[in-house]
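Page 42, continued from yesterday. The earlier attempt failed because a stray header line got pasted into the input along with the sequence. Redoing it now with the clean sequence only.
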Amino acid sequence: TAINYDRRGRGESAHDGPMDLHHNLADLRAIVSELDRTHDLGEGVALFGNSSGGSIALAAAASGLPVTAMVVFEVPIGAEQGSDGGEFLAGLRDRIAGDDPDAVVEYFMKDMPPEWLAQAKSSPSWPIMVRIGPSLEADAESLAWAQSAPHAELLGAVEAPTLVLVGEETLDEMTPAAEALAAALPNAERAAIPAAQHSWQPEDMATAIADFLDRHVPR
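This time it went through. Structure tokens are written below.
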């Protein structure tokens, strides 16, 4: 069974109330608890996280969520114990507290290739991106968390088998980030899939996830 849920501030989930990492992890624990009640999960759930969703998944596993396996794709963590994640989070929160909703997403994308922002702003999805802007606080906070202590200290107790993915054509910073995660997680492996520009095709990702879970999660 695959559950693709709307994080708070996105899709059909509530757009009021706090959007920080703590409340996002509480939401995930609540979902897992409900699934355990209705589906008898046994040892837990497998998590998939894309980009900063991957760092949220890692934070969830590190917080003690019952996780049997994880797959993460191009998690953009910064240098170990660096300060840029905390500075980025502070800047994002300043813009969330301001009166220019567009500025939130513009700031979040400021270190991405500039053509990505130009394409986003010219697409029909831009109003949706602006609407979910406040929910990006949890994403930024999870990246700051990943720099809050040595990686081995943050992730060393996460025993779940983890597949750390990058695209075959990826941004320069994604490969060292993947290497750092694979080195810190006790049961991790790295792989590349056909992907470019920080995006992937559903069939390629589904195959990678299914093959990994078939090898590591008892049915």
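Notes: The mean pLDDT is 96.
Reminder to self: strip header lines before submitting.
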